[in-house]
Amino acid sequence: xxxxxxxxxxxxxxxxxxxxxxxxxxxxxxxxxxxxxxxxxxxxxxxxxxxxxxxxxxxxxxxxxxxxxxxxxxxxxxxxxxxxxxxxxxxxxxxxxxxxxxxxxxxxxxxxxxxxxxxxxxxxxxxxxxxxxxxxxxxxxxxxxxxxxxxxxxx
Length: 155
What we know:
Elements: E1 6-11, H1 18-24, E2 26-29, H2 35-43, E3 49-54, E4 61-74, E5 98-113, H3 114-120, E6 137-140, H4 142-153
Parallel strand pairs: 1-3
Antiparallel strand pairs: 1-6, 2-5, 3-4, 4-5
């Protein structure tokens, strides 16, 4: 069996928060409409660990941990004309957008803010801090992920 890989996925807490995931237990991470983020999601494997990042809030940062439980699922929102994520060019016989199923693992005692992350890492180590980065899904190299976990487990 291969070691789990690590990812970071962003969500605005007023749209979907770590508390929402905790209450639900699992979720489809749908509505991704960026090809690079979609392609990263296609690389995910069951058992991969995912940092839950609250974005577009004060302060933004890593607040929880999730685990990938299913991959290569068709994103149902692309076919729902009432959804904000409807894609009229996507066809059921050749869907453009995927999603993954994730389960809640934990909420960290304290949020690790973007400011704190910027102080510890550089953009070659962690794409998250690259200026202009707006990706909602990104890989994290194992060494950095383990350092993040160690920092987040300190309380």
